[in-house]
Sequence to fold (308 residues):
Amino acid sequence: MTGEDRLPRSGVPPGATLVGIIGDPVRHSLSPRLHQAAYAALGLDWVYLAFEVPPERFVTACSGARALGLRGLSVTMPHKTEAAAIASRRSPAVRRLGAANTLSFDERGIAAETTDGGGLLDDLRQWGGFVPEGRRCGVIGAGGAARAVVLALAEAGAADVLVVNRTPPRAWRAAALAPRVARVARPEELDSCDLVVQATPLSMPGWTETPLVDPARFGSGQIVVDLVYLPSSDAFLEQAAANGARVRNGVGMLVHQAARQIRIWTGLEAPLEAMWAAVSFEEAGAQVKPPPPAVGPDRGSPPRAGGS
Fold:
């Protein structure tokens, strides 16, 4: 485990409550910055650490974290499936997805929840006033992040959720999470979607595979989201924006899924303003500026739910 580079400058004070993120790698993660800012704003003596743990040591690391008294862990790749498997209690969404991004430790064991899909919906509502109910939505990809988005959109009342993926069997499995509203689709069917979520590694540095869907086909009246948050802008979003689409990268989802984790662990409302302030605009760019103050019933704080 490596966490020294993510410690607050003062170190870990005696009696502090410990939480953290576990993944491989985690050195790129903005989660320590977000969480530590939140706990400081809440006046809590909590410390959020980063643990870089390879897959073969994940179960041992979680057992050690619980034995050492950590309150919980944010779970990022490649451990989300195993996180669901080791839990003694799982939320309904975790049971359906077979993956979790949030673990909580207590005397009863390990509880697993997922905050990814809900975090995306929270961000879309507060940033753009978008709610999925009755809307036509598309998801590009069928991996873990895509599956969480498919389920969240369906549970939020989307009229249709179209899944586009390079390998049909994975697309069918993702669509099967919500058989009444989700189905496998062709790229051209995304033209009529109100929301399109790009949930593949396409925009990650070093990724060379050609896009499955040409972003030039998106335009005015559509919201296009890329779940990757660094780099803050990429050719996919830039092309969609040039054609008139409203675009958003993944930092908003990151902030809001972390806010949900904080509510799970502390029982308190997360200080979103402090969390947005902790995001480096120099690194993350203009597309991750926080939303304006919430106004009206559709822009209020999201309900309780369950990180990278």
